[in-house]
Amino acid sequence: MSKARVPWKAVVGGSVGNLVEWYDWFVYSSFAVYFAASFFPEGDDTAKLLNTAAIFAVGFFMRPLGGWLLGRYADRRGRKAALTLTVTLMSASALLIAVAPTYDAVGYFGALVLVVARLLQGLSVGGEYAASATYLTEATPQGRRGFASSFQYVSMTAGQLVGLGLQIILQNTLSKEALNSYGWRIPFVVGALAAAVVFYLRRSLLETEAYGEEEREAGHGGRGTIRELLAHRREALLVIALTMGGTVAYYTYTTYLTKYLSNTAGLEKETATLVSFFALLIFMCLQPAAGALSDRIGRRPLLIAFGIGSMLGTVPLMTALGQVGGFAGALTLSLAGLVIVTGYTSINAVVKAELFPTHVRALGVALPYAIANALFGGTAEYVALWFKDSGIESGFFWYVAGCAAVSLVVYLTMRETRDVALSRAERAAESTSPAPV
């Protein structure tokens, strides 16, 4: 396969599952205000929301387990098999929420169904990232991996935008009473149907050449095991450290941004939502350009640019955002932050996959990433709100900058991964290529 050719079928099949994952993840949190009362007895509305938030958190803490189980599965059974399994779990979790019985009908059994659905969703999200990152990296030829793998964050962002768009449509077409009684089920039905379509697409994917070579060899009976991962513990620690700053910054400028603009800057919720929508839309379009740039100049320059930009730019940017007075200013500053974050998001998947050998690549990406994401990404909003509640909101800005500084040290000292050969065919092509004059 030519280096200049992008395997679009593999790119779409490998990345589109992230769209469904993040759509489901978004609609649960955004529609909780409508379905919370359906699963708990009459009483304090805040208590109901806290209960649904606790169930949401269960899914987040399942991600490391999903990373381990499905990362192991991808290394032992294949990338295609793992991609198919993750999308099956996605569909099942969305369908369970869509048909979950209410408290009035079956008591707390409905809440139990929610818990099971979130467990499945957490497992799925934990495995989808690694299976997708590994497949996109291995299925794409050298010289185009950065571009192809950037579509992971294109699809993740698209999932949030689709969920946000559907929320806006439903809020403007259904009454609040209709949303509370049955309207909240609609997005989960849509999620289940979308996952079924992705399942159909993924069944026709081809297994990657790198994994096929590994499977034909008898020397790696320990494929995808913790023992094999520990043999590459330096790379695993690298994944945790390089993810730390990126995931905190990503959640700060995406999921937390709307709340920050509303609660601190004082913008109307509708205005804050529109800012997030258009900022994410432009951010999504930036990913392939940055990924392609990394194929030309390497991964480390983009990571270093993100590290420096986030370390030095977070405090002044977030301070200015907290004082912004309107849509244009908020959008401009939000985009400045997301442009910086693009240096991480566009290539973080391919960098992690390029660090590990084939027999432990999926697990090596999945487990350390899930741990870092649970510790830093998943807690970013809670840390931000803790600082705000303590009366030192600016402390959170310094926290984000500090996490970026730790990751910057890693970016400055790690090896460049762009030219790593992932299969024997690629190594053979390198050995037969004419030496540069």
UniProtKB/TrEMBL annotation:
Keywords per UniProt: Cell membrane, Membrane, Symport, Transmembrane, Transmembrane helix, Transport
Family: Belongs to the major facilitator superfamily. Metabolite:H+ Symporter (MHS) family (TC 2.A.1.6) family.
An example molecular function term from Gene Ontology annotations: symporter activity
One GO CC term, this protein: plasma membrane
PANTHER family xref list: ALPHA-KETOGLUTARATE PERMEASE, PROLINE_BETAINE TRANSPORTER
Protein name per its UniProtKB record: Putative proline/betaine transporter
InterPro entries attached to this UniProt entry: H+-coupled_symporters, MFS, MFS_dom, MFS_trans_sf, Sugar_transporter_CS
Top-level taxonomy: Bacteria, Bacillati, Actinomycetota, Actinomycetes, Streptosporangiales
Pfam families assigned: MFS_1
Gene3D superfamilies named in the record: MFS general substrate transporter like domains (1.20.1250.20)
Domain Major facilitator superfamily (MFS) profile: 10-419
Keyword Membrane set for record: yes
Keyword Transport: yes
Membrane-spanning segments: 21-40, 52-70, 82-100, 106-130, 151-170, 182-201, 236-253, 273-290, 302-321, 327-351, 363-384, 396-414
Function (record text): May be a proton symporter involved in the uptake of osmolytes such as proline and glycine betaine.
Domain of life of the organism encoding this protein: Bacteria
Topological category with respect to the lipid bilayer: Multi-pass membrane protein
Subcellular compartments: Cell membrane
